[in-house]
Amino acid sequence: MPTRMSQLFLRTLRDDPADAELPSHRLLVRAGYIRRVSPGIYTWLPLGKQILDNVAAVVREEMNGIGAQEVQFPALLPREIYESSGRWTAYGDTLFRLADRKGAEHLLGPTHEEMFTLLVKSELSSYRDYPVTLYQIQTKYRDEARPRAGLLRGREFVMKDSYSFDLDDDGLQASYDAHRGAYQRIFSRLGLDYRIAFAVSGAMGGSASEEFLAPAEYGEDTFVQCANCDYTANTEAVEIRVPDPQDPSGHPASELLDTPNTPTIETLVDVVNERRDFTITAAETLKNVVLKTREPGGDWQLLIVGVPGDRDVDMKRLAGQLEPVEVEVADAELIKTAPDLVPGYIGPQRLAEWGVRYLVDPTVVPGSAWVTGANETGKHAADVVRGRDFEPTGEIGAVEIRDGDRCGRCGGELSIARGIEIGHVFQLGRKYADAFSLDAQGADGEPIRITMGSYGVGVSRAVAAVAEQTLDGSGLCWPASIAPYDIHIVPVGKGGEQLEVATKLAADLEAAGRKVLLDDRDASAGAKFADADLLGMPTIVVVGKALAEGNIEIKDRKSGERRAVPLSGAVAELS
Ligand code: ATP
Ligand code: MG
Description:
The chain is an alpha+beta fold.
């Protein structure tokens, strides 16, 4: 049965919703796909629900295709399980916590690593039971700090999460590769333009982690692409080319410079360059930015980050690498707890001695010499050398990446773009297997610690990502693979003939296996055409004037191309 628009639970809106920042968000609301309940929480109306289910169906097919098996965990979970992995605290404010009538604490699952690990532990015991991959398509809850952009960052959203369980590293690699392939097929089928980018692997370090990013002007992620090789990386994880390390003893001894009133890099460069024997650029200065970090559940602690003075620190990049540890710019109160620090004139020379953590960007290479603060008001020092005059606690990619930075692999030129993270594949390793002692009994009777992979697809986010990439000035524009209907039939004109023909055509097309939406409403041609464009079904069929010559008009929503086709051949043409 074709769906009649007169019966469809749908009201399209003429005006943009006030809270919508992104084109996809505006259109999904205007076209009656979703309605906002509260920030980051949405109701799916019939058209939206069909898109969501269609996306989920593609994901499900491809997951089943690699041998993954579907399960479904509850969203409402007891505290104890997340306590034993440390995530009750580590998840911080993002976790929705609640108590039952007896006061027992619960949470709404943000992801389900613990549950999958415990399930496998309770059901499997022998090495013969492995490898195994389980997944679910389920509603997740995260109290996001900035629920914006509609479905892109929800507080309640649909995710496909899967976990692979393997006996050894080679097995994990094979499971990872299988997922990567499935994700390529999923996102191609969804009609998304996407890139696979290196991502930060978080606290575990070292293991493979890649994100699937859909390039989009309004995406929250930034990534770089090399013009020369295929290197693609999230800017959080990017490795840019750095100078070669130098011999620390190859520099003159450090020299104290009198630099009154130079609390900023600009003023410092000006004052130094007034000296006849000495000129510098901002790139030769070392800027030390005072930040603070906090472990989940812990207190704020100072962290100083050193970067070349011509670059800013990218806080989002730092945050991505430090997560779940939080990072912010330090406030004056906290800076006062380290009384030796002289804001505006901080140098790295004695930070270790004062017990202040100091990380440098990798561009501050071992043996490099810098003009930097001398830890006295009005004084800087020249030829302050890493590995001779100071030793950082470690390195962290901190500088703001620029278009034209050089690729860490090949030296080619990097360009920056924005994207939406639609999926993530990640070699988790033994973190959760260790937390829950997940072992298989080996052939020799000895226990084998299981190694895991973790893989996510943002199912509801993908709906918005597809919308964002495909929409145009007139409305949404769905690819055939997920559109709620294949064909949108619009009868226009006075008298009953057009509607009659359209109704017959709709029934014939449904019988031929197409999903049809029939605009049988008593509305003006203009209103019907505008709604057809707004709703975005791939093919629009107009039964109108041309009927006099025995023709209907077929319009391709995406290209806008129209052609007249004899009514007699319409079903064959459209099925
Ligand atoms: P982000 O960096 O965007 O916050 P994440 O790295 O926290 O995402 P994962 O935990 O890897 O996300 O979740 C897997 C997938 O779920 C992501 O790739 C993304 O597509 C989707 N996702 C994550 N958070 C949200 C959200 N708040 N709303 C909608 N989809 C989300
Ligand atoms: Mg991620």
